[in-house]
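User: Before I run my own analysis I want an independent prediction to cross-check against. Here's the chain; please return only the structure tokens and, at the end, one sentence I can use as a sanity check.
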Amino acid sequence: MNIAVAGLGLIGGSLALALRPSHRVRAFDISEAARDAARAVGIDTVDRLDDLLPSDVVIVATPLAAVVTTLAALCDRAGATVLLDVGSLRAAVAALAETAPAAARIVGMHPMAGAATAGFASARADLFRGRPFLIVPTARSDAAAMAVAGTVARDAGGSATVCSAEVHDRAMAFLLSAPLAVASALAVTGAAVGPLLPLAGPGFRDTTRLAGTPLDLAEQLLTANPGHVVAALAALRTALQEIESAVADRDRDAVRKLLAQAAEVRGRLDS
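Assistant: Structure tokens:
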């Protein structure tokens, strides 16, 4: 397939690198430096978004705030091109698809992968190896476009799981937004230890890693999906209150029960 990638950050750059061995790949980024860096490792780059067309597939891997505007800019000229986006929230894309031209073909393709660093310099071809991609249909998804999304996910090294936009965004509130909120809160409260903070071990450092999420993305993850995020934070608050009460009451059995429940859930991630 002729695959185009719009956005050469960590995800878009990694997709370009991962797909290059089996497909013809072209890419665009608004940053000339990102285009130059991609070109330096052999990725064919273009200087305008419109130059990505015609292609069999265009993957929109821009920052989350620019996904909808980028898709909208492509829709009118895309024709039969399948437009995939890798945004971590789906409601806005679902709304765009409802009003997109009848011939448009738009599918969500959210890879459950990432890294602590950002930008093309952090991109790597094996980022998606063994990782799931959540394939999310829209009002402008047909069976062939869905199949293309699955093929792209697998050719990037991952696997494909289909879910609705509503199910996706509710899950991301618990799996992305709530962990970001916890990491941020823990980092802020950790400052109370003063000069000992730089001596923190891997437990605190690992748990607060998401507090270093680029500010624009972090703000979007917390504010662009408010209903689901508020529900996730309320559930989190309830769990913390249960732990607080058990500790305050010195109820060792209750503490152990809560810890065992948490360990069981965490164990599912490794099974």
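Sanity check: The first strand starts at residue 2 and ends at 6.
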